[in-house]
Amino acid sequence: MATAATSNRRAGSGTWQISSVSGKQAGDSVLSGDTIHLRNLFGAGSYLDISGGAAAAQTQAAIYDVSTNSSNDRVGAGTASWRILAKTSNPLDRAVRENDIVLLWSLYDVGGFLETNGGGPMPTEALIDVCTSAYWDRSNGNCGFWRLTKAQA
Question: What is the pTM of this model?
Answer without folding.
Answer: 0.85
